[in-house]
Amino acid sequence: MTFARPIKQHLSHTIFLFVGVFSLVGCGSDNIVPEPDPLPEPSASDVLVQTIESATGQSVSALVLPASDDYSAIPQDPNNPITEEKVILGQLLFHETALATEGVNTSRSGTWSCASCHHAAAGFKAGIPQGIGEGGDGFGVRGEGRLLATGFDGNSTDPTLVPDTQPFASPTILNGAYQEVMLWNGQFGAQEGGNVNINLPPDVLASPGTPKAENVRQLAGLEIQAVAGTGVHRLNTSDNSVLQTNGEYIAMFTAAYPDGSNDVLEDASKAIAAYERTVLANEAPFQQWLAGDSTAMSDDEIAGATLFFGKAQCGSCHQGPALSSQVGVGASEMFMAIGFADLDIHRPDVTGRVTLADSRGRGGFTRNAEDDYKFKVPQLYNLLDSDVFGHGASFTSVRDVVAYKNAGVPQKALDESVLDPRFVPLGLTEDEVDLITIFLESALYDANLLRYQPSMLPSGNCLIVADEQSRMDLNC
Length: 476
Fold this sequence. Notes:
The chain has helices at 4-27, 44-56, 84-95, 202-205, 221-232, 242-245, 247-256, 264-277, 285-290, 299-309, 356-359, 362-366, 398-407, 430-443, 468-473; strands at 136-137, 147-148, 335-336, 375-376. It is an all-alpha fold and 476 residues long.
């Protein structure tokens, strides 16, 4: 009897609690908030996507290079729409050594082409500090074996022994569709409706008696470069060239221009430019990653890319699908002064001279002091195909260039006011420099550029170069 009341009270209290809890669960379940599951840590790929989109203000899809046969997606001159027929013709003309009949030395005829200084094996550069058209011997494996032929010298007083060389390292044509003007100083290009050279006076843009005079055609840089280049590089597309005498070329030219041609030089050049616009590094691992393959890049490549677009802010200058410039930008975003040295004429593998105008870069062309020492921002794909970097071939490795930009100290003695304000020390560690280098060398490397090179030419000549030593090197 003594324990009856406490037990009864305990049972009553328990029943009350049970009913109360039941009432809360049955009538007010929204008042109970379950603990949320912890959010998963973002993957390295997710972080890279966020970094790119934050840095560029665009979706990662804005960096995708189109398929080479997706002509409508490739930037092009509205006065030179890309067609398959033009591309087929242009690819052959670009590599055709039989066009080399306008040289200074008849014994060298038929031994060079556009591709002599822009070939697939070197990432469509020359493979040597100073490209050689006429007056070169040999090729090697990636163009590194090309040397001046015996007797040829850029300082020779004998006009028949003056080689075709330029005072700059040969820029690549790879991904060239993504920039409106060509050459390191942008002197080729006057595209109708363009943005880069639009405000230059006619005597500057198309100086009479110079290759720039071709700008009167009002075409984009690739087209003007092809037109002017036939003269500069001693090639012939008319006056009884293979275009007029070879049956295959005649048929291909007719297919490319079924309405006929009033200007063979311009139309042949438009075909070459159409081909060049399709030369895209769209099989590189970074491009595969952009297309959705999260396994296309290694962990180090992803880490390097994150640094490239993030801490290092490389994407502030290297933009768009080619990591060169955005399509449609003006000169201020395409040309920058970061103090790279000029071509060293004292090197044994360099000949000729570098004038003050050459050294002034964009300013040497525009005659505007505000443009002095600015050079075009280059694209960044397939850098590993050669050891030539910068307009003056002043670097021999990708890592050296990354380390140079990290240090922020110019090679060329320039006043600080001339240098681009973005050229400052980046504060990267040695490991971070290594990771960015890995991204540039590996993730941006398209290993199959030879797909853009023909297997043979209608003329039967060796393609690229065809002097005796080159024929042995190329087994042609």
